[in-house]
Amino acid sequence: MGDFIGALKQRNLESVKSFPKADLHNHFVLGGSRQYLRRMTGAEIEPVKHPLSSMDEMHAWNRRNLGDRFDTSEMRRLLIRAAFQQARDDGVTVLEIGEDVWGLGEFFHNDVEELVGSFAAAQRDIAPHIELRLQIGLSRHCPIGYLEEGLSHFWGNRAFYSIDLYGDELAQPIENFKSIYRRAKAEGLRLKAHVGEWGTAEDVRRAVEELELDEVQHGISAVHDAAEVRFLADHHIRLNITPSSNVLLGRVPSLSGHPVGRLYRSGVDVTINSDDVLIFDSDVSKEYLRLYEAGCLSAEELDDIRKNGLKAREKIDRRDRRADSYSV
After folding, report:
1. What does 272-293 look like in DSSP terms, one character per residue?
2. 129: buried, middle or exposed (CB in 10 Å: 19+, 13-18, 0-12)?
3. What is the pLDDT of residues 250-294, one digit of tens each?
4. 57: part of which helix (H) or strand (E)?
5. How far is CA 303 from CA 71, 228, 270, in A?
6. Are 167 and 139 in contact (CB under 8 A)?
7. Is there a contact between 292 and 46 (Cβ–Cβ < 8 Å)?
8. CA-atom Rg of the chain in angstroms
9. Rounded to an integer, what distance in angstroms lies between the CA atom of residue 297 and that of residue 291?
10. Which residue, 186, 7, 160, 30, is CA-closest to 96?
């Protein structure tokens, strides 16, 4: 069988890689090709082999494997290039990645055009066929005033496709970010946030309603409440799920029982993504094959998810609503 379904059934990873797929949940700093980084820097970055017991253990892994060796403008650009190399090698044709607000000043001299140009150059040089969806990243740990000041450099720049909030889900109430997301909505950005990886099903719904989210990064805890699952399905809220990451961070016990299967069969819009390739060895192709081999989803279901992830989603016609129409 010369199709994606056949590649899965034959357990042929190289063939799985040859089919187009999306990666809509990729933190580029940890989402690049370890082979590329080894070739360019000599760094040996080994993925975790066993489930971690806490986020502190993940941070410890970061310190051991990355430390501060990539904390320069030159190395930041190298990590961007590594992300495109990883995507190209994995058959990814739609890649959604971006820089954190704080990174603009730290690595790009508060020059958003320099930042955009760095991503565009990496795309052009390494994977010009890939559709880049550039994202603005926000950390929950940052004070709102700090984020608003940093975002002032991004507003009005039409190179960006989406905005995403990540970090400790308990760092501060989701309601604190409403003013930022109102502005992002007026800017025409697709609205995303990390929620429901560590929190509850209720947390997922609250975030969707308070921030008017289009997509949720993770959202797997919603599976524990049938009403919340129906809410996500009825409102066409996409969940960008990262299975191996969830297992290796101890959020679910195994891939065989991963919530993505139940969510998909309940009509929720789900996609399968990498998260942090360097930590979890979670190439998108491997994620598809692992879910198939674990019996979580059939080859036909996985092919449907793959095709769904490649479908264009509106940048929301909010793009027609100019930023100058925004008011507090």
Report:
1. E--B-HHHH---HHHHHHHHHH
2. exposed
3. 999 999 999 999 999 999 999 999 999 999 999 999 999 999 999
4. helix 55-65
5. 39, 25, 12
6. yes
7. no
8. 19
9. 6
10. 160
Return the residue matching tokens 């991963």.
258
**Bridge partners, 326 (sequence order):** none
Q: Count CB neighbours of 73 within 10 A.
A: 14
Instruction: Pull the structure tokens for residue 92.
Output: 């990814």
Between CA 82 and CA 232 the distance in angstroms is 34
- pTM over 0.90? The answer is yes
Q: Residue 97 in contact with residue 217, Cβ under 8 Å?
A: no
DSSP string across 293-312: HHTSS-HHHHHHHHHHHHS-
Cα separation of 174 and 139, whole Å?
A: 12
Dump pLDDT digits (tens) for 138-191: 999 999 999 999 999 999 999 999 999 999 898 999 999 999 999 999 999 999
d(CA 54, CA 31): 20
Site of tokens 């990451």? 245
